[in-house]
Design a protein that fits this description.
- The complex is a heteropentamer.
- Chain A is mainly alpha-helical.
- Chain A is 73% helix and 3% strand.
- A two-stranded antiparallel ribbon of chain A has the order 1-2.
- Chain A is globular.
- Chain B has a single domain, classed as Helix Hairpins.
- Helices cover 72% and strands 0% of the residues of chain B.
- Chain C has a domain of 92 residues: NADH-ubiquinone/plastoquinone oxidoreductase chain 6, subunit NuoJ (Four Helix Bundle (Hemerythrin (Met), subunit A)).
- Chain C is extended.
- Chain C starts with a helix and ends in a 38-residue tail after the last helix.
- Chain D has a domain of 218 residues.
- In chain D, a hairpin with a 4-residue loop joins strand 1 and strand 2.
- Chains in contact: A-B, A-C, A-D, A-E, B-C, B-D, B-E, C-D, D-E.
- At the B-C interface, helix 1, helix 2, helix 3 and helix 4 of B face helix 1, helix 2, helix 3, helix 4 and helix 5 of C.
């Protein structure tokens, strides 16, 4: 039953949906241009207030949306507010607006909550830093662009804010621009994501092209269905159109030449390439570990909770299209699975606390991707599971990062071997960090358990046994490396004097930790299936599916056990195993030398073998050509000037010979 | 006798023979102008050429348009022009002789194009190439 | 009958002599001899004029051309003292090139002239070639007359004479005043700085 | 009275000759003023003569083209006199040896101008040939005017010999034309049937015209004579004698052989292309400013004869307009060169370095003249070249327009070499040249203004075009 | 004297004012030229408003029109016998280009605030250059167009020759000669059209109605396109651009890269595509390929440049490649993208070269390895440099993105007359440039501005002075406005591009 919703008279929040991205934008302009030179304190407050008010607006939207169309029922896609931004050609305009549907509401909530907490936390964390105002301006810019991305009703607006998110992450990673490593990391992040965006752009172009050419036929049916919900008329770039069954049917039918792969798959793989870049999937993951150079709140906000999930959100948004081209979905699944395994394995060997958390984020993102990958339109459990895991992961991963930040703030070093025995010095951080570790490892009462189970159930349900096995093994690994860093940092004796003098973080920093801890506990019980679902109606399912829960918990227990075994006590046992593994250990520690390969490819191959020869070629050959033509005229000048010998009689002979030549030419030409 | 006279008369010079004559004299004059070493000698050759051209006019007058006297009048004017030319020519040669002590035409080539050294394409390009190499010394990589 | 035969014989004899004299003008190494050869060549051309019923012209030719211009040339030879020493041979390649060009010219012009149809009109009526008609033609302002060229040729001769005089005259000894300014021997071409110049010649009036 | 301008010029020449005898040393300057007023009077006389009519039974004709040519000759004569005033009256810092005797100089100069005017109005071969010789032979004398200077003598020698050769060729050509048609008048002697002798005559006459207009195989005398002759005479040679050559070509190729012009247009196109390219290329390697101007004149000759190609009712006005622009630009440039060589005696291009700092106004005038010669908008050179290119394109010779455009680039390179010396190089170490005398500065100012305005104000082109558009239909035999 | 004649007259009058101020008060010269360019800016604003009012209502009409609708037309017969007239008017494309030029010249004058040696001649030549450029953008008579086109090229020689750095004579001469050879090609094409059309007039609108045969257009179009391409840095003829720009003083390279290179694109569009549609169809794909090389070649070449100005010169070669690529696509989006790219790249390069001049004024070196960590010392310049860099790599929210997406979509959609797969492949190759641009922009800027300060003496460098702040501020504001709210800017361009498309598809 499609509830009759008329755009004109919606609730206050739904009518003013544009407030959510507007607040951070206004505060970015305010802080960036005017408040920065005034006072640092004021910047912090204004920035946090702005994000907080956009959080409130998001909550308002969520409530009104779910009162309008109650959970469990039909969730129509609304575009309550939009304006024409850019007209490419008479039939093809791009509207900027805000889309309201289950996943965008969810994302808005997640982004605004984590962003508010991180703003609060960084007031304490960044105190006394010279670039305080600049930091908050960049944070607000990031929040604005993330909200813009989430609220994008069409793929081009998403691409616009996609780039803006990339730039703000570049600015934030390179915040300490005095440090060469931070500068290199920010550059690497931006270039790698930019490379992925190339694929995304080509994908957008293909979708735009086929969208426009097929727009004539498919449009009337779709507009009939969705006209009521949208402020502006349907356009080729809109998601409503791109994911509509009519369009997909016609587009899916077009085969790309002899290979038999449908054009739809090609487009979807290209789009996924953009998503893979932003969510740091396997080939394009190298920038995320280096992104840890930025201040920790940045890592918490961007590289844990919000930006990296943009890729997942994109795939979710285009899910119907992915579903129609089955092959693209398989690609998503396998890439996701492999990344989670790959990252988890590396995570076990890293020494830097933030690098470990980074690899754990990589691994959890792999989880979400494989969840989407395994889902199909018929049994869309994976879709809900992925969104659920996104929600829970945002909470506890942000908490982990903020906790790590607190620890680093106290010990002034990232190395876990410099810390140790901090549970006595920093009790609140220790307690919240423990909750988050338990959540991520997937133990029963906490949120991690529920979301991970749903993913495993989805994988099993749709018959992807291989992926299920990998996911299970990764769950174990996650537990192992999480408890490894937990034990090394908080248990055992103080390894350095700084660790011994560590003191608890101020209130403004531990309040967000507490809130996040509560959230990561409560988040598990939210009945996500009712709120977020797609495709066919599926049977109500409640309670815990024990067939999945038991093996998952067993794997987690196994991982925790090995961690306890290796890292409590003197820790010599860990080194012994490391030595025994020998080469494999160093290989894994060096992140499988992927960075070195990239560096080699770019510097040696592209710079030396391509652009230097081009520059040389341009300077000598093409430029040489121009110079030689100059020389040729000069040489002909010398040649002709040779005739001027100064001898009168040679002039006379040239004269007479010339006259006769004229005669001959006349005779030959005109007889 | 008559028969002998008649055979001689058969070779009477028509228009063609006359014109052949003038072109022979003209080319001899031209040869003189191109080879004579002494400037005055060249003027002699010029006189010859002008004279043959004047003769040409008279021939055409006699053969083509006897009713009028255009050819002869033109010849008279040619003679006058030749006179003027000789006057100026001789004045210049005398002045030149007084200054240079010779009127040998081959030595009158103080003014000619200085055939400067004319560097090949690489040399011309050399300055540009140095600029390029300076620009691309293998700079260290960051 | 005799007339045409004699006419032909005379034509070929005079033609041959003209060509020989012309070659002499061009090739003799002693310049005076070349001048005399030129005189002979021009007189034979006067002979041609007679044969072509242009008696007045022959007279003018002998009087003006041979008598005036060639004498002037002889004066020039004397002045430039090029008559005394033997003129050295032209450089071989100059000679070859000159010969080649002139022979080429001869062949081309002869061929062109030989085959072309000129406006031949041989009614045998001799042109009114006596001095009276030429004189009248020179000064007749009407369509047939040549009064304009007559005036122009006088200008030309005057201009050539003035030019010749200016170029060829000797500068007078220093003490004698000279009519044209800027030519006094005192003026050397040494660059005198502005300050030392006398006011009359554009120097600063102190 | 149609012949009034010529008569005025001749009378001025005579009075100058006589006045030179009686004027005391102090009033020597009066000679120049006399010739200037004479030329001005002649110019007024030309303006007043009607544009058609004939005298002396058709021998001396007058039409619009002749009218314009006479005007241009008188104007260039006027400016040559202005340019040579300082040199002749010793008002120069760098003493020129032996350029004296201003009276005779002006007389001979005026005679050549009258010769040119007669040439334009000649309607039969006799007057044509004699006036051509009157326009050329005195120039031999003028080229060799400076007796003590070996270069001037040598220039005179070369000019005499090649001039004599050219006049012999012209005479032979005219003789053949007379023979072919039996008529002495130019319009009357139009050949109806094509024959080898006619082509021989055309070849010989082209050689004669080539000598006067410095077309390629016949241009070799130009460099040495321009370098040897005194500076004002080089100016006169490069402008007036080129105008005479053009007038002579008009008389021959339009009036006499108009019918056959379209057959020979490919030959003319080849001539134009080769002359332009050679002139511009050799100018690159020149260092002496006078030799440089010789080659620039040669390249401009190539541009001129492009007017003969296309539909003639556009070619004639385009050529006349370009002649006007060429006169203005070349005289403006020569004013600067004459002034600089008078004041410092330096004649090589590198010697002009730093002039923009020592004498900015003169440097600006010379730069404008150079850019006009190179054909840079909005100056008149550009407009003139534009119309000539359009004529060539109209005739279908697109390749020639391409060659001409590339040539104007090479020409710009040549002219920029001088501008570079003036504007970019440091000041010449021998110190600045004294400021120009009042006569030269006025002349430069006037010429530069004309140079700029001729391109922009349509009056000039429309005037020329209006009068000469019908000229061709009158002349061509149909 | 209509509005447009005043538009051309104001810089000329300022130039005369500058020339006639006594040499002693050279400081006043800067203020005179600033006032002059200021009035020019005001005039442009007035022109834009009046155009917006006049052209607003009939955007619908022009959708199907075959001839561009001109506004504020002024016609004065000049040489009637040859059909030449002083015919100036303006349409959407010209208005956008006029806005660009007046902004760039205003900021150029501000950027050259401390030119001490021979200031009078410097500003006089600069204003003469701008008069030529304004003339080109408003003239619709081919003779007038060509006259202003060559007038705009010539002052470059003196400006680079006298005030330049490095091998200035060599690069000045090379620049002038190559541009003139380019205009030689155009000249041949111009005359061919004038004569073959038989209309005996140089009026652009009339020639547009003349029907040229197919093979005639076949050989004239490449001539015109390559002729204008030389100025628009088409691939094999671009070598003057790195030398010319690196030797030119700041304001000159701003004006040259910012505005003069746009003359090439504008000419190719206005005379190439508009007058010779059939020729454009034949050669479209070929030039698309050539300009793809242009784009990739320019950006790859820029990666290894050590000198900041060479770096920017190569990047502007790549961006001008976009302009010509857009023109070669012959689609609505392509042509529109070309015009927007002309505008946005003009502003971007103007900003870039202005900033390089300012940095050079302080550190007296342009070699990237010699500089480092300047952000700490001059934050304003560093931020504006970064904004310019991000605009050049096509960050959404700045003008570059709008233009590039238009060009890519235009290329991707392809036109009915050329093989769609090839145009898709070429467009994908072109899109790769956004990555390479990101690489060299960030690499260059990071080396110069970020990291620790390399030389101790850089510690005491000062940040931007007030003229520099105003100029950079203005340029950045324009970039942001066009980037964020492109709608108003684009509808006008679209209405003046549509006639060209109608001519292409519908034939004359």
């Amino acid at each position: 039953m499609t509830t009759e919703i008329d755009i004109q008279h919606l609730g206050f929040a739904l009518r003013h949906v544009w407030l959510v991205p507007a607040f951070p934008l206004v505060s970015f302009v305010l802080v960036g241009l005017f408040l920065r030179p005034l006072s640092q304190k004021l910047c912090g407050i204004v920035a946090t207030l702005a994000v907080f008010s956009s959080w409130m607006a998001a909550c308002g939207i969520a409530c009104e949306y779910y009162t309008l169309c109650p959970p469990g029922g039909e969730h129509p896609v609304l575009v309550p507010w939009a304006f024409e931004w850019l007209r490419y050609q008479p039939g093809m305009t791009v509207n900027v607006g805000v889309i309201v549907d289950p996943i965008s509401v969810l994302l808005m909530l997640v982004v605004t909550t984590v962003s508010t907490l991180v703003h609060l936390y960084s007031i304490g964390y960044m105190k006394g830093d010279t670039g305080f105002g600049r930091f908050f301006a960049y944070l607000n810019l990031f929040t604005f662009s993330m909200l813009g991305l989430v609220a994008a009703p069409n793929i081009l607006q998403m691409y616009v804010f996609w780039e803006l998110v990339g730039v703000s992450s570049f600015l934030l990673i390179g915040f300490y621009y005095q440090k060469p490593s931070a500068v290199a990391a920010s550059k690497k992040a931006f270039i790698v994501t930019r490379f992925a965006d190339l694929g995304f752009l080509v994908g957008v172009l293909t979708l735009g092209y086929f969208g426009y050419t097929l727009f004539g036929g498919a449009a009337p049916a779709i507009t009939a269905r969705t006209a009521a919900h949208c402020a502006m008329p349907l356009q080729p770039f809109d998601f409503l159109y791109l994911t509509s069954p009519e369009f997909l049917a016609r587009f899916g039918a077009l085969a790309a030449g002899s290979t038999g792969i449908t054009l739809l798959t090609v487009a979807m793989v290209l789009v996924f390439m953009g998503a893979a870049g932003k969510s740091a999937m396997f080939p394009l993951h190298i920038w995320l570990p280096d992104a840890m150079e930025g201040p920790t709140p940045v890592s918490a906000l961007i590289h844990a909770a919000t930006m990296v999930v943009a890729g997942v959100y994109l795939v979710a948004r285009m899910f119907p299209a992915f579903a129609v081209s089955g092959a693209a979905l398989l690609v998503v699944a396998y890439v996701g699975a492999f990344t989670s395994l790959f990252a988890a394995v590396i995570g076990t060997t890293q020494d830097d606390i933030k690098r470990v958390l980074a690899f754990s984020t990589l691994s959890q993102l792999g989880y979400m991707m494989l969840a989407l990958g395994v889902a199909t339109m018929e049994s869309p459990l994976g879709y809900t599971a992925s969104m659920f895991h996104l929600f829970t992961h945002a909470c506890f991963k942000a908490l982990l990062f903020l906790g790590a930040g607190a620890v680093i703030h106290a010990v002034h070093s990232n190395e876990i071997w410099d810390m140790g025995g901090l549970r006595k010095k920093m009790p609140i951080t220790h307690f919240t960090f423990l909750i988050a570790t338990l959540a991520i490892s997937g133990f029963w009462p906490l949120s991690g358990f529920f979301s991970k189970d749903e993913i495993l159930a989805a994988a099993l349900g749709n018959g992807h046994y291989g992926i299920f096995a990998v996911a299970l093994f990764v769950a174990g690994l996650t537990a192992f490396y999480m408890f490894r860093i937990y034990l090394v940092t908080f248990w055992g004796e103080h390894r350095t004097d700084k660790a011994s003098h560590a003191h608890e973080i101020p209130a403004v920093m531990w309040i967000p930790l507490a809130i996040l801890a509560v959230l990561s506990v409560v988040a598990g019980y939210v009945p996500m299936a009712k709120f977020v679902s797609i495709g066919a109606e599926h049977a109500e399912h409640h309670g815990i599916n024990f067939a999945i829960a038991i093996p998952a918990t067993l794997a987690a227990l196994l991982g925790t056990g090995t961690a306890l075994l290796l890292y409590t006590g003197s820790g010599s046992r860990a080194d012994a195993i490391a030595r025994s593994l020998g080469g494999v250990y160093t290989l894994v520690k060096k992140k499988f030398y992927v960075d070195e390969v990239y560096l080699f490819v770019t510097h040696r191959l592209i710079f030396n073998l391509v652009s230097r020869p081009i520059a040389w070629f341009d300077r000598t050959v093409v430029d040489g050509g121009v110079n030689v033509s100059g020389w040729a005229t000069r040489a002909s000048g010398h040649l002709f000037s040779w005739m001027q010998t100064g001898q009168v009689q040679s002039y006379g002979s040239w004269y007479a010979a010339g006259a006769m030549l004229v005669l001959l030419v006349l005779w030959a030409a005109l007889i | 006798m008559n028969q002998l006279l008649a055979s001689i008369a058969a070779y009477a010079p028509g228009l063609r023979e006359w014109l052949l004559l003038t072109s022979v004299i003209f080319s001899i004059g031209l040869y003189g102008l191109l080879t004579r070493r002494n400037a005055v000698g060249i003027l002699l050759a010029v006189e010859l050429m002008l004279n043959s051209a004047a003769l040409n006019f008279v021939i055409f007058n006699r053969f083509c348009m006897p009713a009028r006297i255009d050819g002869s009048v033109m010849a008279i004017f040619v003679i006058a022009v030749a006179a003027a030319e000789v006057v100026v020519g001789m004045a210049i040669f005398v002045a030149l002789y007084r200054y240079r002590g010779t009127v040998d035409v081959n030595r009158m080539d103080t003014m000619k194009d200085p055939v400067t050294s004319f560097e090949g394409p690489v040399a011309f390009n050399k300055e540009v190439l140095d600029n390029i190499n300076k620009q691309y010394k293998s700079h260290h990589d960051h | 009958m005799i007339g045409p035969a004699i006419y032909t014989v005379m034509f070929w004899v005079v033609a041959a002599s003209t060509v020989l004299f012309a070659l002499a003008v061009v090739n003799t190494r002693k310049l005076l001899r070349a001048a005399i050869a030129l005189m002979a060549a021009l007189s034979t051309t006067a002979g041609f004029y007679v044969m072509l019923d242009a008696q007045f012209l022959a007279g003018v030719q002998v009087l003006v051309y041979v008598g005036g211009i060639v004498v002037l040339i002889v004066f020039a030879i004397m002045l430039t003292r090029s008559g005394e020493l033997l003129e050295d041979h032209p450089t071989p390649e100059r000679r070859v090139v000159g010969a080649a060009i002139s022979i080429m010219f001869l062949i081309l012009s002869a061929a062109a002239v030989w085959v072309s149809p000129f406006a031949e009109y041989s009614t045998g009526k001799t042109p009114p070639n006596d001095a009276l008609s030429i004189g009248k033609a020179l000064l007749d302002p009407g369509p047939g007359g040549y009064v304009a060229p007559f005036e122009v040729i006088s200008l030309l001769l005057l201009a050539a004479m003035i030019g010749g005089i200016v170029i060829a005259r000797k500068t007078p000894p220093p003490n004698q005043p000279f009519t044209s300014g800027g030519d006094l021997p005192g003026e050397t071409d040494v660059y005198t700085p502005l300050s030392q110049r006398d006011p009359k010649r554009g120097g600063p009036v102190s | 009275m149609l012949m009034l301008p010529e008569i005025i010029v001749i009378i001025t020449a005579m009075t100058v000759l006589v006045a030179d005898l009686f004027l005391p040393e102090r009033l020597r300057f009066g000679v120049s003023c006399l010739s200037l007023t004479g030329l001005a009077a002649a110019a007024v006389a030309v303006l007043m003569t009607p544009m058609n009519g004939s005298l002396l039974g058709g021998q001396f004709g007058m039409d619009s083209v002749a009218w314009w040519f006479k005007l241009f000759f008188v104007i260039s004569g006027f400016f040559t006199v202005v340019l040579s005033m300082d040199l002749l009256h010793g008002r120069t810092t760098f003493r020129m040896r032996g350029i004296g005797s201003p009276g005779e100089y002006y007389t001979v100069l005026l005679f050549t101008i009258s010769g040119m005017m007669f040439l334009v109005s000649a309607r039969d071969m006799v007057l044509l040939y004699v006036s051509l010789e009157l326009a050329t032979i005195p120039l031999f004398a003028l080229a060799a005017w400076r007796r003590e200077d070996a270069r001037s003598g040598e220039a005179g020698l070369k000019y005499v010999i090649i001039g004599a050769l050219a006049s012999a060729f012209i005479l032979y050509g005219l003789g053949l034309l007379y023979g072919l048609t039996g008529q002495i008048g130019l319009e009357a002697a139009r050949v109806t049937r094509v024959s080898p002798a006619f082509w021989l005559a055309v070849a010989m006459l082209t050689a004669g015209v080539g000598f006067k207009l410095t077309l390629v195989p016949f241009h070799l005398w130009a460099a040495d004579v321009f370098e040897g002759a005194p500076m004002p005479i080089t100016a006169f040679l490069s402008v007036a004698s080129k105008g005479t050559g053009l007038a002579f070509m008009f008389q021959l190729f339009f009036r006499n052989m108009g019918g056959w012009l379209d057959d020979g247009s490919l030959l003319i196109a080849l001539f134009a292309a080769v002359t332009m390219t050679l002139g511009n290329c050799v100018a690159i390697v020149q260092t002496n400013i006078k030799r440089f101007m010789a080659f620039s004149a040669i390249s401009h000759a190539g541009v001129f004869i492009m007017g003969f190609l296309g539909p003639h009712d556009y070619g004639v006005p385009a050529m006349l307009f370009y002649l006007l622009a060429y006169i203005a630009s070349t005289f403006a440039l020569f004013a600067g060169i004459v002034w600089y060589s008078n004041e410092t005696g330096r004649e090589t291009i590198p010697d002009y370095r730093g002039m923009s700092r020592t004498n900015p106004m003169m440097a600006l005038a010379m730069m404008l003249a150079l850019f006009s010669l190179a054909g840079i908008p909005p100056l008149s050179g550009f407009v003139g070249k534009f119309f000539l290119f359009s004529v060539a394109a109209g005739a279908g010779y697109h390749w020639l327009v391409g060659v001409a455009a590339v040539n104007s680039t090479i020409a710009l390179y040549n002219y920029l070499r001088i501008v570079r010396q003036m504007y970019i190089e440091p000041v010449h170490e021998d110190g600045p040249a004294a400021p120009a005398s009042w006569s030269l500065s006025i002349a430069t100012a006037v010429l530069t203004v004309v140079l700029v305005l001729v391109g922009i104000i349509p009056f000039f082109y429309n005037a020329i075009n209006g009068t000469t558009i019908a000229w061709m239909s009158g002349v061509l035999p149909h | 004297m209509g509005l447009l004649s005043w538009l051309i007259a104001v810089p000329f009058i300022t130039m005369l004012g500058v020339v006639f101020t006594p040499a002693s008060r050279w400081k006043a010269v800067r203020w005179i030229s600033l006032i002059g360019t200021g009035t020019e800016l005001a005039l442009t604003a007035l022109l834009t408003c009046r155009y917006w009012i006049a052209a607003g209502p009939d955007t619908a009409v022009t959708m199907t029109a075959k001839l561009t609708k001109l506004y504020f037309v002024e016609r004065i017969p000049w040489f009637e016998s040859l059909g030449i007239q002083y015919f100036i008017g303006v349409d959407g494309i010209s208005v956008s280009m006029i806005i660009l030029t007046s902004i760039i010249i205003f900021t150029g004058v501000l950027a050259s605030w401390n030119v001490e040696s021979r200031t009078k001649e410097f500003f006089a030549l600069l204003l003469l250059l701008v008069t030529g450029v304004f003339g080109v953008f408003v003239s619709f008579d081919l003779f007038l167009f060509f006259m202003f086109y060559e007038l705009a090229v010539l002052p470059m020689y003196l400006l680079i020759g006298i005030w330049g750095t490095g091998p200035k004579e060599y690069s000045a001469m090379k620049l002038t000669l190559m541009l003139l050879v380019g205009s030689a090609f155009v000249l041949v094409g111009l005359f061919a059209m004038y004569h073959v059309s038989g209309l005996h007039t140089f009026d652009l609108q009339a020639l547009a109605q003349a029907s040229f045969s197919k093979d005639f257009q076949g050989w004239v179009f490449p001539l015109i396109f390559v002729g204008f391409g030389v100025l628009g840095a088409l691939y094999p003829f671009h070598t003057w651009s790195p030398d010319g720009h690196s030797s030119a003083p700041t304001a000159v390279s701003m004006l040259h890269a910012g505005v003069l290179m746009k003359l090439g694109g504008y000419g190719a569009l206005r005379i190439g595509v508009y007058l010779l549609p059939e020729g454009a169809k034949m050669w479209g794909l070929f030039f698309m390929g050539l300009t793809t090389i242009n784009i990739l070649y320019g950006s790859l070449g820029a990666v290894m440049q050590k000198d900041l100005k060479y770096f920017t010169a190569y990047s502007s070669v790549s961006h001008c490649g976009f302009v010509l690529f857009g023109v070669a696509t012959l689609t609505v989006m392509g042509l529109k993208g070309a015009v927007i790219q002309m505008f946005s790249h003009g502003i971007m390069t103007g900003l870039f070269f202005g900033l390089i001049g300012m940095v050079y004024g302080r550190t007296h070196t342009r070699l990237i390895p010699d500089m480092g960590g300047l952000a700490k010392v001059m934050p304003w310049l560093a931020t504006s440099f970064y904004i310019a860099g991000l605009a050049s790599l096509g960050l959404p929210g700045l003008a570059g993105f709008v233009a590039e997406t238009h060009v890519f979509l235009g290329g991707f959609f392809g036109n009915p007359w050329s093989n769609p797969t090839i145009s898709c492949v070429l467009t994908i190759l072109a899109t790769m440039s956004i990555v390479v641009t990101a690489v060299y922009v960030l690499r260059g800027l990071a080396m110069v501005f970020q990291g620790p300060i390399t030389h101790p003496e850089y510690e005491l460098l000062t940040d931007a002075t007030w003229p520099e702040r105003i100029s950079t501020g203005m340029l950045i504001a324009t970039l942001v406005i066009v980037g964020v709210m492109p709608r108003y800017f684009i509808t006008l361009i679209e209405s003046s591009v549509m006639p060209m498309i109608n001519r292409l598809s519908g034939g004359v």
